[in-house]
Predict the structure of Ras GTPase-activating protein 4B isoform X1.
Amino acid sequence: MGSTVRPQVPAPQRRLHVGCPFTLDTASFWSILQWSPLSGSSDPYCIVKVDNEPIIRTATVWKTLCPFWGEEYQVHLPPTFHAVAFYVMDEDALSRDDVIGKVCLTRDTLASHPKGFSGWAPLTEVDPNEEVQGEIHLRLEVAPGTHGKRLRCSVLEARDLAPKDRNGASDPFVRVHYNGRTRETSVVKKSCYPRWNETFEFDLEEEAAEALSVEAWDWDLVSRNDFLGKVVVNVQRLCSAQQEEGWFRLQPDQSRSRRGEGNLGSLQLEVRLRDETVLPSVCYQPLVQLLCQEVKPDNQGPGHLIPVIEETTSAECRQEVATTLLKLFLGQGLAKDFLDLLFRLELGRTSEANTLFRSNSLASKSMESFLKVAGMRYLHGILGPVIDRVFEEKKYVELDPSKVEVKDVGCSGLHRPQTEAEVLEQSAQTLRAHVVALLSAICRSVRACPVVVRATFRQLFRRVQERFPSAQYQNVPFIAVTSFLCLRFFSPAIMSPKLFHLRERHADARTSRTLLLLAKVVQNVSNMDAPISRAKEAWMEPLQPTVRRGVVQLKDFITKLVDVEEKEELDLQRACNSQAPPVKEGPLFIHRTKGKGPLASSSFKKLYFSLTTEALSFAKTSSSKKSAFIKLASIRAAEKVEEKSFGSSHVMQVIYADDVGRAQTVYLQCKCVNELNQWLSALRKVSTNNPGLLGSYHPGIFRGDRWSCCHQKDKTDLGCDKTHSRVTLQEWSDPLDHDLEAQLIYRHLLGVEAALREKHRLLSGERAADVSPTGSGGAPEDSLAQLLLVLQDLQEAHSSSLAGPPPREPHHLLELQT
């Protein structure tokens, strides 16, 4: 392929990966696997902060010394982030939660491990002198004086200072130290966004101190002042520059001795930081076109490049490659065709029907990703009511006689404890009820299943029928569908509802056992009551009549599910596309300020909100008719609100322009930090291309005659803090980022380029010897040769981007897996 004209290249997207319970990506976190304290008992959970901003709260794991969270998050971040910190907390119902310790990973630390950081990281004690945040605005200059040069320091303002007082704010003042002299600003009461505009001057002598220290403090009347952070200025450098002005990040006080480490337990972490420079779309078009040509329906044969990509992809990164390819083809409208190609490839190399789609092949991994992207809303509708019922009932359920503990069950009458036989029978009845309810929901859901999912399962069903047409294999097409829909989608969600966002908290031990047994029954039904399933656990026999009825119901459901013709598929697809699906929906509490008077939390009213790609709407209930509230194009910012503003946590503000262009603000309260960040993320993503997005905002409210955050009296005053429009959570339902997916595929192919070249050399040798026949779609080595030329062009485009003009601001993706 020839070279292409390359437009101006944007900046890198940094992908940070952290493994084992927490993961970062473009910043990508994999995980904190577990916390291992030394002694005692706790109810631990983790708070993840990026530059002291809480982004994630994991669920609490009750009464354990070695919790495992297993939660996954991805957070897009601006390029200016400095550190990610994991705080292990002990939940307390009667008082404030205790901080057990933390692990802090700076950006430099992550960048110093290009292949990833892995191992146990000791928790360190949380030192108040290190828990600093925010920035201070200084103007520094060397000016002539009466008796020589003078050092002038103007303390203008600060933003996002740590709230040290119970009212959710601080009473900040600044101390400036130079050459043995100290000057102080006035105290600004109840503000984390103070403005001082005070100037101090010092004599600048030849042998004077080399550093100017600027310290921020929280003033307290009856106790010691709290340290808020410091900035140390190099005076020699300032003398050379003569003047310097800007925002300086507050730093901890490193001069104080650190307290003991190593006695608080540890977190196991796997962390990897990657930088991705995403080029303009035109640069990726040859790569995307080449891959699309492989899977288009008019392409005869199974294609050449996808098999080579699968062959050269290691097991460790197969899930990531599968997800990226799936998203790339979804963006091109070819997801069904891509999966059909993978079905044909796997069927072509499978001789035993009972091993079909049982391995972690590219086909299996791609289908898992596909169902999460296209079917999560469907899954919630099917499983949600059953999972909620299991959690609410909290019944003791056990079928294995060797595990029954009668003492945990209680009494059947006033005094008589239940016998083991009664426990087993009652457990079987409870599970039967759950299974019947679940199968009933599944059987009623044919029309609720997304059209693209139905079409994909239709292709899978037909391909398996063609490969195994004999009567002895009549169940194989059904099992092929259930192996994905039930075994790899429904069953994992039943066993771990928190990980599929079906519940906010992890299940306790009793509920977990019920969910596990329910998942086992679903698996037996999905396997079409195969003898091998029954033989594994004979104690499941009391549920066999329910399983057999379930098999009949499930086969009838699948028959209807895959019975969708091409015309019906197109009609359904058009109907779906004509309606804007919700990006985010759920109950929130709303309060709109009137501009005067105090605002109380009691004035918040509960409504059901729905955000689409067109508007933010609300209704009294989820089933009520919705009223358009804010047009999407009018949103200017979505930001958090200081806790002190309403005396309540988890309040956000949506700033928008009304019909005549005036700025308006609505305040919405969420129930937890995760829900708050999810709503902020959704609002920011759908409005990311809006004109007139704000660069600053007020984190407080305009109460009476002034802003509660910075105390300015002009309501139209510019905001005192930066907006965070680039800080978003990545969800399966997010709009696809076509260029990013193409870049990630390019990066993977570049990593296996040597293997691709070797494969091309072998195929070319075979062709020269007439060993390899050429199909109608062209020889495989020709496709590989094209791919290698495309990779070379992209390498040149990336190289030229380094010498080009300053790129746009990069974006980071932080992946967290707990």
About this structure: Residues 1-34, 594-602, 771-777 have pLDDT under 50 and may be disordered.
